[in-house]
Design goal:
The protein is α/β, with parallel strands linked by helices. The protein has helices at 28-40, 65-69, 73-91, 108-114, 142-149, 152-161, 167-172, 194-210, 214-228, 232-246, 250-264; strands at residues 4-9, 12-17, 48-53, 58-60, 97-101, 104-106, 118-122, 126-128, 165-166, 178-180, 183-184, 190-192. The strands form three sheets. Strands 1-2-3-5-7-10 form a six-stranded mixed sheet, with helices on both faces. A hairpin with a 5-residue loop joins β11 (183-184) and β12. The protein starts with a strand and ends in a 13-residue tail after the last helix. The relative contact order is 0.11. Bound molecules: 4-(N,N-dimethylamino)cinnamoyl-COA (DAK).
Length: 277
């Protein structure tokens, strides 16, 4: 693939959008390659994914404006469908996806981060939906996901004004869970870049997720996503089914058995090697 790389670190997969010259903007080829990268993930061997952008400056600076500028209505619709299909694939992917946002996350960049389960960012991150300034509406789910994720009033403010917000504001409104800065020594020299600290934190979080019982984690993702779409009466039924689904699995027996063993003898092994069965 030309614009997407995949790296496997134990049970964690890292997908990097690698089109740095165009600030990792999403053209049709990037969207196709991302789809292929997700399709190629082995969800049994891999228990958490990280999605990031190459370089320090930009996660994704949006959909490719050059490519979009010449689209006919039919082509625009096809381009939108390609993006929406990919973003739904990420959102409903069986294992969790963490967006590690380094720099610009604008338009389609903000939208692809919102299709991930969790967002963390470096302190140079900038989020925004600048589409109305380009004469279009957000087209990869921005009007829908942002309004569900932060307050509808804040989403409307960001979308109607096309104003970008910095990392601290994104943190304050709940769009990101954490912000990472560079490590600086006493003389003021940067010893670890913000991007490296961000990636280390993303990998640590992903490894923490990967160490949990995988069937339970998958069912939690499904329960949260599907439950948010329906009323509470239906939501608790979804939860009940997915809860019940964990029983009689080897992982449930191993997890509960480990707890009971630990109670009897605190020196017993505390880390369970969950087998995804
Ligand atoms: N598309 C294409 N190229 C881009 C790009 C983008 N979104 N963003 C940056 N680039 C390219 C620049 O053209 C430049 O290329 P060269 O000139 O060097 O060849 C290179 O990246 C470096 O950019 P700059 O020179 O501009 O770098 P600066 O640091 O000065 O500025 C910036 C960084 C991020 C502030 C600036 O590049 C910028 O404003 N970029 C555009 C950001 C933006 O407006 N993004 C939102 C795009 S709209 C829909 C589906 C999807 C969408 C809409 C509808 N339907 C289904 C209806 C999605 C829309 C969008 O995402």
């Amino acid at each position: 693939m030309e614009f997407v790389t995949y790296e496997q670190k134990d049970k964690v997969g890292i997908i990097t959008i690698n089109r740095e010259k165009a600030l990792n903007a999403l053209n049709s080829q990037v969207l196709d390659e991302l789809g292929e990268a997700f399709d190629a993930v082995d969800p049994d061997a891999t228990r958490c994914l990280i999605l990031t952008g190459a370089g320090e400056k930009s996660f994704v600076a949006g959909a490719d404006i050059g490519e979009m500028s010449t689209l006919s209505k039919a082509e625009g619709e096809a381009f939108g469908k390609k993006g929406n299909d990919l973003f739904r694939k990420i959102e409903t992917f069986p294992i969790p996806v963490i967006a590690a946002v380094n720099g610009f996350a604008l338009g389609g960049g903000c939208e692809i981060s919102m299709s991930c389960d969790i967002r963390i960012c470096s302190d140079n991150a900038m989020f925004g939906q600048p589409e109305v300034g380009l004469g279009i509406t957000p087209g990869f789910g921005g009007t829908q996901r942002l309004a569900r994720m932060v307050s509808p009033g804040y989403a409307k403010q960001m979308i109607y004004t096309a104003r970008n917000i910095k990392a601290d504001e994104a943190y304050r409104i709940g769009l990101v869970n954490a912000v990472y800065s560079a490590t600086v020594d006493e003389a003021g020299n940067v010893t670890v870049s913000a991007k490296d600290n961000l990636m280390a934190a993303a990998e640590k979080m992903a490894a923490g997720i990967a160490a949990q019982a995988p069937i339970a984690v998958r069912n939690c993702k499904k329960a949260i996503n599907e439950g948010l779409e329906v009323n509470m009466d239906e939501a608790v039924v979804i939860e009940e089914k997915l809860f019940g689904d964990c029983f009689e699995t080897e992982d449930q027996r191993a997890g509960m058995g480990n707890f009971l063993k630990k109670k009897d003898d605190p020196t017993k092994v505390k880390v369970v090697d969950f087998q995804n069965r």
